[in-house]
Amino acid sequence: MHEIIENYDLDRISIATLGSHSALQILHGAKLEGFTTVLIVERRRLWFYNQFRHLIDHTLVVDSWREVVSKNIMNRLRSMNSILIPHGSFVEYVGLDRAESMEIPMFGLRGLLRIEADQRRKMKFLADAGIKIPKEYSINNVVPPVIVKFPGAKGGKGYFIANSIEDVKKGIERAIKQGIIQNPDEALIQEYIVGVPAYYHFFYSPVLDRLELLGADIRYESNVDGLKRLPAEISKYINPSFVVVGNIPLVLRESLLPKIMDYGLKFVRKSKEDLPPGIIGPFCLESIIREDCEIIVFEFSGRIVAGTNIYVMGSPYSWLYWDEPMSTGRRIAREIRMAIDRGILDLILT
Ligand code: AMP
User: Which of 25, 86, 148, 346 has the smallest CB count inside 10 Å?
Assistant: First the structure.
């Protein structure tokens, strides 16, 4: 990676991303910071991104996401001095092995991708960092209610909530029959935390050596968020599902912020210890806040999350640091700009 960056023309750096997830925000932010932008896009979505031509200087069209790692695309990205911004859909589209070995500088901590792909390693990382997580149960030792999760489930698809050991066993047998998992050990049986969901958008700046809280959101999930619209005597017969369809802004009670910031700092510290140089740029902690105001984190994302799309003009928190509209997409571009100006681009790319 050092070699690639050494050959880059630092006056002509471009910012590249994949056409999905938070691409529009990333491109918008890059433009505001004066960068050339590159969008890699599937042919079938080209018509949509063409509506935003003013945000895109170069378009690289692929017929399938597999092509993203082709020699042709890699060469073209390198010829444009591109820095790739991975987002939440990146690994899903490109595949973990390919994402890890892509020969293009990435803004973010590449080493975190493999931990993120494994639910148990992910939860251990959080616990070892000193962050409160839900209890995990073995199949014969369940304390209901629990939420049962399967590996690779996208957007919570296939998760189920159970209120007895029998229901857990039945649900896992069903998942094996449906081919979702091969054996019961693959299912993660987790304490179901009763409270409200809250997701925190952090940004760790290696350039400024500071952690910023750039926003927070709530996910709008189908059908679980729709069940409360039904009378209880109907909703009790419907299994909740957790398919994310959008995001809702959230401002937190200020007395919760120290705990949230403390968790963010713990995450940064742990990433530096285990995976030097540590987290770079955006990450998200995903939690349930209980009625006693205890915050339990059940998931993290090591990159920009779609909830940041709410704040293209900045959030109430980003204003406190920047006093100007600062989305996470723009903050990424600002970090790259500051690193170029200080001659420390190496510090923020992996
Ligand atoms: P995930 O795919 O891990 O983001 O989870 C999907 C959704 O399931 C979350 O947005 C939460 O609403 C819910 N969820 C996940 N884990 C828990 C938990 N341990 N307790 C309560 N709700 C949870």
Answer: 346
